[in-house]
Amino acid sequence: MSLTDKLSMLMARPGGDNVQKDDVPWWMRYGGRGLGTVGGMIAIVLGLVNCISIVLLDVGCLISGIWQMLAGFIAIVCEAPCCCFFIDYVQTLSDRMETRPYWNKAALYIGLAIPPFFMCFISMSTWFGSGLIFGTGIIYGMMALGKKGSIEDMRTSAAHLEAGAGLPSSAPRATLVSNEQPVSFTGAPGLPAKH
Predict the structure, then answer these.
(1) What is the pLDDT of residue 170?
(2) Cα–Cα 20 to 30 A to 159, which of 17, 89, 97, 183?
(3) Mean of the per-residue pLDDT values for the chain?
(4) Within a domain: 134
């Protein structure tokens, strides 16, 4: 496969979104993809900065930097495979991730971003680099939640909740239990009175 064939295959990919993801606004879709790409690049550079902390004999920050560079590379591979066209399997991995639901991507990015915080908590490069990958996971999590209800549906639901009558089965319930009692404080239980 020639270089031009690879480039044309990579450039044709963004139009291949499946029908399931049509309810997500275009700006959120491109925002997640852009933040994942730029955040992955920044995470790789800041992970390298964390690796330099081995001079101070801080092994936790070294491992955190390596993890952060790996997480940044995975984010770039999933979001912008055209940045890694020299690796053969990148396009198949990216296509496989593109067919997964949004919550899978959210779980992947959040799962990749959290461990460096536990290894090197005091480093600002960890906070910023892994924070961008974590933000990408949050955006994909919001996309997984889906579109908000229409204004008419929300007004109808609020009116039914305030009236307390005729709650639809899909509306949230105002009470957790049917036999709840008001909370009152009568004193500490089981302590005898002192004389």
Answers:
(1) 55
(2) 183
(3) 80
(4) yes
